[in-house]
User: Fold this.
Amino acid sequence: MNILLLGSGGRESALAWKISQSPLTNQLYIAPGNGGTGAYGTNVALSPVDFPAIAQFVRDHAIDLLVVGNEDPLVAGIVDYMRQAVPALPVVGPEKAGAMLEGSKDFSKRFMTEEGIPTARYRSFTAGTIADGYAFLETLQPPYVLKADGLAAGKGVLIVPTLAEAREALAQMLHGMFGQSSATVVIEEFLSGIECSVFVLTDGHGGYRILPVAKDYKRIGEGDTGLNTGGMGAVSPVPFADDAFMAKVEERIVRPTVDGLIRRGIDYRGFIFLGLINVGGEPYVIEYNVRMGDPETEVVMLRVASDLVPLMLAAAKGHLGDMVLDHDTRCAATVMAVSGGYPEAYEQGKAISGTDLAGDSILFHAGTKIDADGRLVTSGGRVIAASSYGPTLQQALATSYKAIEALQFDKKYFRRDIGNEFPNS
Ligand code: AMP
Ligand code: GLY
Assistant:
């Protein structure tokens, strides 16, 4: 099979690594890819949101499966577009109506409420109803959670300690703090607990498979302090997400989500990402995403024991049937090396060395590129994730840390405390 994968992050590196191992894969193309994805296939200089160019590439290169890694093309309707442009092409990713689960917090909260899926109590407000928003804030306990309705590159959520700051944040968001994305603001109850990420591959017809569970580390600073980032590391499995917890997740969240999509006539063939929080042993949904997580994919792919290509193809064709998705029993961990300054301003174009010293780690490139002189240089905030297996999480982490220490580029930064809350796992 010829496969086209869209995206350029660490997630796409891990997907490409996994896809390239399948005996079914003939040619793998990654658009646009990064400085590391060339090891698994051929990078193609195409933007994931240039739908006509992608359709042309699909025709010219006899692509048999399109895998959409990142959310932007999905929210912009790539699946609906391809259905018209290349009707026979199987695509991994939801149609636009399904991508609303990530594209609109208001939509996803309404969906969960209607389906009885556990989530924080909420209401949505616009500039015209700001007074109701102030009144709703009065009914909540601090801290206050305010979310821009639309996509805001992971930055659209504010958690503020006082009512006065919450009122101020609401006014600013409604007046364009995140542009059109915050023209509607969701205010919700704060939930206290530990988060984890559950991924589901669905075929749009009621078939689904649950992938290995992961936990990511979103804050820039050790001890979960400082600004939110795209993710600084991840582990899988997650010690508290045991069989009992996962049974609740499947019963209360996965099935009602899959059923609710079908009930709405939404043909969702692709990955659903459940951002969950464990509140005293009970799972609640913090958010949906309509793609795999990054850097969760950099551990989840290590723990998918089955060939993912036939599973993705079957899901894209609408029939998972009785296909098996086996989980590897080993542990996996990933640690992300980032550019100093990230997630605020940082420099790019720094020469990277030490990629040959990764030992037993797999280096998944994110913000890297090959420059005009053929050198590997940094080109983003998150630069390279080192993923490793281990008999325990701590041993997997130790292997990843060795690889991250060996990696060199100017102003390299990484968190040294990934997985520290699980010292005995
Ligand atoms: P989101 O973009 O919705 O995932 O929110 C970003 C982060 O904000 C989440 O990963 C949580 O850490 C935090 N968060 C969002 N909603 C809540 C909530 N209702 N209670 C507590 N923390 C939250
Ligand atoms: N790691 C969180 C995300 O991919 O959104």
The longest helix spans residues 243-263. The first strand starts at residue 2 and ends at 7.
